[in-house]
Every structure is written in C-alpha cells, then in structure tokens.
Write a structure and sequence with these properties.
The protein is built from ten helices and ten strands. The chain has an eight-stranded mixed barrel, surrounded by six helices. Helix 3 runs parallel beside helix 4. It binds ligand C2E and calcium ion (3 copies). One calcium ion binds next to strand 6.
Length: about 270
C-alpha cells in the first residue's frame, strides 16, 4: 500500500512541477519572442452596417513560437497580463501599426482599434505610450482603445479616460455582457463604443435568452448614444438581424477573417470593387 501512495504523490509532484516549468518557460518565451520577432500583427475589417463599406480595423496579435508553433492569444494574452508583459506587447502593436500607416487609408472616417488590458491603464501608462508612439505619428486615422477586463480590477482611473479623450482617442468596452464588464462601466467610463461579444451574436436565431440580452444591449447603447459593434458575425442572417436593429458596425468571419496587416490594402481594394 505504502509504495503505491508514495508513487502517486511523487507522480502528482512531478505533474505540478511540469506545469509550473511550462508556465515559467512560456512567459520567458514571450519576452524572448518580442525581441526575436515572433509576434505578428493581424487585422480584421469592421464593416459599416449602413453602407457595407469597411471603415475600420481591429488589430489582433499572433504568435508563432519557434518551439511550439502557433500559440493562441487566448493562451498568451492572459499569461502576459499576469507576468507584466502586456505593455511591451501593446507597444509592439502600436509600433507595427505606425510602421504600416503609409499603406492604410488616411481618411477621417477610418479608424484603427487596438486591444488594451485594464492593467495598462494604471499610472497613466497607456496615455504615455500613446503620446510617445501614436500621437506624433499621425492623429488620422482615429484610434480606438478596446478595453478588456479579464480580472476584477479596481475601477479604471477617471482622469486616464479624460486624457485619452483629450488626445483624440476613443474608448470601447470589449466583450460587453461577459466576464467582469458590467453595467456600472457605462456610468464610470462613458465609453464611445460597445462591442457586443460573439456569444451574443451566435445566439441570434438559436438561443432565446442570450438573443434577448443582445436586443437589450442594443437598445441600451442606442438610448445612451453609444456606438455599437457586433463581433463574431458569421452568417448573413446574423448580419441582417443586427443591421435591422441599427448596430453600427459588423465584424466577423462572414466578412473577413483576421489577416496580416500588410495584406489589408489588397483586401480593401477587392472589397471596394465588389
Ligand atoms: P477579442 O478582442 O474579443 O477579439 C475577437 C476574437 O474573435 C479574435 O480572436 C478574432 O480572431 C475572433 N473572431 C473574429 N471574427 C470571428 C467570427 O466570426 N467567429 C469567431 N468564432 N471568432 C471570430 P483572437 O485573435 O484569437 O483573439 C482572442 C482575444 O485575445 C481577443 O479577443 C483579445 O481579447 C485578445 N487579444 C488579441 N490580440 C490582442 C492584443 O494585441 N492585446 C491584447 N491586450 N489582447 C489581445
Ligand atoms: Ca477586441
Ligand atoms: Ca471582443
Ligand atoms: Ca473576446
């Protein structure tokens, strides 16, 4: 009996050790990956629901790790947030988009959205990064900061929000209706944009309760005069439903999958000629 128990506890210890070692090495690999150019910036078009034109993009990080291949953002972003590596990744995205500005549309109606973790709002860090990296480059096109709240953090500093508005940056709340994003955000953060999470888009025509939430979020945003983006639009039916209810922008595989930022101009040309 005893040797078996011993063996089992040794095995458990080994598994825990393995898991920890893997976590450690992955966060080390994130810092290494930034310097080794393993990260890439992809973008996904946002479609104006009224005109059908593309008048914005969301930037999405991709990571091709030398040892493990492609690693999904849902894996490395939460890890980067916990290991204080999220700000370097956001700065990487900003630098990349600034480098690509010459090939991106330069009209006032076009906007670029980046994902920013709530922790990056602490101590005005995001404002300083934008002042250094974005503002000198070009105030056109407009920048939208998509705030995702993954952990329950203390409320984002009000003054940071007003400073963002002062430098012409608009604020979106990502994944609205899920996780820690709550109704109190609307009062505290006064966002310019709400992004309806893809679980609510997926509910259209399939899940009565979540579809009711979708309808309520839409009318709530409209009453508060907040612009709406629906993400995860995969079917013509979903697109029509959201358009009929006055959602401003649609984003999803139905229109385009995320693509390398450098491929966007060719995609846009093709989309416009359709
Ligand atoms: P998100 O900001 O909600 O981004 C939307 C996610 O939905 C993206 O996943 C996108 O590829 C995916 N998506 C787009 N259209 C569709 C669709 O029609 N159907 C379905 N099923 N999915 C669709 P991705 O690129 O894997 O990113 C996952 C999450 O990782 C993002 O969710 C965001 O929270 C985070 N993330 C990605 N890039 C960054 C970044 O640069 N910084 C930060 N802080 N977070 C990032
Ligand atoms: Ca987002
Ligand atoms: Ca989202
Ligand atoms: Ca999401």
């Amino acid at each position: 009996q005893l040797p078996l128990a011993l063996l089992l506890s040794l095995l458990m210890g080994y598994i825990v050790w393995l898991a920890t070692a893997n976590r450690m090495s992955l966060s080390w690999q994130i810092s290494y990956g930034i310097t080794a150019n393993e990260f890439m910036v992809y973008c996904q078009p946002l479609i104006n629901a009224k005109t059908g034109e593309c008048d914005g993009i969301e930037l999405l990080l991709r990571w091709h790790n030398a040892r493990q291949g492609w690693i999904a953002p849902d894996v490395f972003i939460p890890l980067a947030e916990r290991q204080n590596l999220i700000a370097p990744l956001t700065r990487f995205v900003l630098n990349q988009v600034v480098a690509h500005l010459p090939i991106l549309p330069r009209c006032p109606s076009f906007h670029i959205a980046i994902n920013v973790a709530a922790s990056h709002f602490r101590n005005r860090a995001i404002v300083e990064d934008l002042q250094h990296l974005w503002w000198p480059a070009n105030p056109v096109p407009k920048l939208v900061v998509e705030l995702t709240e993954r952990d329950a953090l203390p409320v984002v500093d009000q003054s940071v929000i007003s400073q963002l508005h002062e430098i012409g940056v608009r604020l979106a709340i990502d994944d609205f209706g899920t996780g820690h994003s709550s109704l109190s955000y609307l009062k505290d953060l006064k966002p310019d944009v709400l992004k309806i999470d893809k679980i609510f888009t997926a509910a259209i025509g399939t899940d009565a309760i979540n579809a009711t939430v979708t309808d309520m979020v839409i009318s709530l945003a409209q009453r508060l005069n907040i612009s709406l983006v629906a993400e995860g639009v995969e079917t013509a039916e979903q697109a029509a439903y959201l358009r009929e209810r006055g959602v401003d922008h649609l984003q999803g595989y139905y229109y385009a999958r995320p693509m390398p930022l450098g491929d966007f101009p060719a995609w846009l040309e093709h989309h416009q000629s359709d």
